[in-house]
Design a protein that fits this description.
Number of helices of chain A: 8
Shape of chain A: elongated
Number of strands of chain A: 0
Strand content of chain A: under 5%
Oligomer: homotetramer
Number of domains of chain A: 1
Largest sheet of chain A: none
Distance between the termini of chain A: 44 Å
Helix content of chain A: over 70%
Largest interface: B-C, 39 and 43 residues
Structural class of chain A: mainly alpha
């Protein structure tokens, strides 16, 4: 009986994880559709293609920021679900609400790539940073729910460790909200904050590369 | 021999589940392609981008309805397949026929976003609600087949619980058919019904969030 | 040692299966992009949208044929891989070459939907039926490789059953090649053959639905 | 305790593998979007469709090269991860950075298909071969990290075998860099090198097909 129940929970969790992995993977891969292929010119203006590719720098920049952000959220998601012993419907639904802004990412990514040098860049930049803030906010809600569910099962957790994780996610959330706020005043500073945040969050992942 | 057969069945079921998870995940994520990126204007009409984004409300609304509907169907699908001990080819095929209208969802979603304020909105609204009715109808057929297969294997089920589940799915099906019928007379009321249905169906999933 | 090796093989096989499931699922879901959303008309020509949707019948027809064909190939793929005890690189590569025409399906599907009523429909129809013939041909090669690999491992198989399976796949292959040939003379007859084949192949999957 | 820890590691590894499988599968399948459907002509210029399809040879050629290259990288990825006993965050991140150029492949594939016969083909060809060089370079970094992680766990490996694998990947990397360099002088020779490399790398996978 015991082991059957365990198997059941394992199945539950693994379907949420594999479903989420799929969504993260597809959102990442659809980003390539935000990079437009330049059209073939009429004449042969020398250097045309190189120029066109160079003019696409906003598409490359936003591609990389969005890709690495989704990748980091996926790694965090992975870390969170390692602690899940039992899934309930609320977790499935909350997790789905975390995936909603993840699937949206290609839209603000395209939008920002198109409007980054436009006088009205602020709205595109706000949507871009805002969607990341939403994702991190949902990560926090999912994490709170996981720790609560876990607690109810009577598993003794390192409370200090759990609190530190929660605080970390809260801080990252506030930094993204700050980036979001900044975009309304200085759009490029807001995006720059987003870019630095991605580097800052990626660094610890790399600390073992040379170990 | 016994355990080998079990392993086999486990494998069968898990491939149907993982295949379905993929299809649900991709259908969800492709919805982002229904949100069009506004083009860059010639001059600098102040407030242009904000206005364009605001004008896209039908795309956001239909996006959210379609996303949450597919998510809820996935949760229900998950619940149904937890009961599957053995899969047969008929289940694989029926499940595929449930996935067909799921993969179609981005089409009526785009269509409704484009025509919601158009005098001929009714046909777009009918296709939108109709495709959800089809999905729920197929969910019912898959569920009936699962309970029948399960029964044949001689596993004692809580018959009352099973009947209640079947009745629930039938009721939701009739509500979607009603929404579908309404769209021909009052398109917006039909879509509103769809929207309320999504909220109504999502609520029970959330009852444990604050537990 | 023994069980570790089994685990290894299980892992090998399951990654091929899950990779293939992904490809089948994505190819299926991308088919929705072959259905174009009609544009909003200038004036309000009454009945416009219904007319436009009705004119899209070739897109619906080719969508359903392609969807069900890929679904049936996936079910067959599933059946074949149930027999795989050991995967080698050749199987991974051959399986990849089976997936190549599967990923191509959205292209001939779009093409045929666009040209089915055009005087030059034959080339679109040939590509459509031809890509299915290629898929079934690759299914045969993968199946032959699987039965050979299986044999080498010394597992006693029901040789009669295996031969019947091989013969079945060969017959379906020749029927698709016949449909392909027909499209050059009578395009619609070739497509009709394809449609009947799909129904004929789907029927046995359904024999247990009412069991 | 021991076995629980093993299970944990297994879970870690399997999520990286399944996430990567998804990304490879989606990148492969999105390639079909690089093949454009010819538009319906006004009049009935006899032979129009056949001519249009024939003119698309660059799209078919680049499709096949990109598809088979991603497939081969996936097979190599699979081989590498068979050796992973333990995953860390650095591996998850490095693996993500390997997936980044994989997800980009549809872009240079479209670009090259459009510009292959254009006087400025060299830049498209450089991006095409360069993205494969980047992928192989990342494969090398991931492989180095895997062997290092593995070593730290005290598992005795056939050092000669490991070194041969590393050398093989380094050689393939230098060949892709050479192809990349060539594209700036003779674009078609660079692409030809890429094509020959794909065939050369696929051959050993096929050595068991007739076994």
């Amino acid at each position: 009986m015991r082991s059957a129940a365990d198997g059941q929970s394992g199945k539950e969790t693994s379907r949420i994880e594999s479903f989420s992995d799929n969504v993260f993977a597809i959102a990442l891969t659809l980003l390539v559709l935000t990079i437009k292929v330049p059209s073939v010119p009429e004449g042969n203006h020398s250097g045309y293609l190189l120029e066109q590719l160079a003019l696409q720098w906003p598409e490359y920049l936003t591609y990389v920021i969005s890709f690495v952000t989704i990748l980091l959220v996926w790694i965090k998601h992975h870390m969170m679900f390692e602690r899940v012993q039992k899934a309930d419907h609320a977790l499935m639904f909350l997790n789905g609400m975390l995936l909603l802004p993840v699937t949206l990412v290609p839209f603000p990514t395209s939008l920002l790539a198109l409007f980054i040098v436009h006088p009205q860049a602020r709205y595109a930049a706000a949507l871009f940073t805002g969607s990341f803030a939403m994702i991190v906010g949902m990560v926090y809600l999912v994490w709170k729910h996981i720790t609560r569910l876990n607690g109810r099962l009577g598993i003794v957790e390192d409370e200090v460790w759990l609190d530190r994780q929660s605080r970390k996610i809260r801080i990252v959330f506030f930094l993204y909200v700050a980036a979001f706020g900044l975009t309304f005043v200085y759009p490029l500073v807001g995006i720059g904050t987003c870019f630095l945040l991605v580097i800052y969050l990626a660094l610890p992942e790399l600390k073992n590369v040379d170990g």
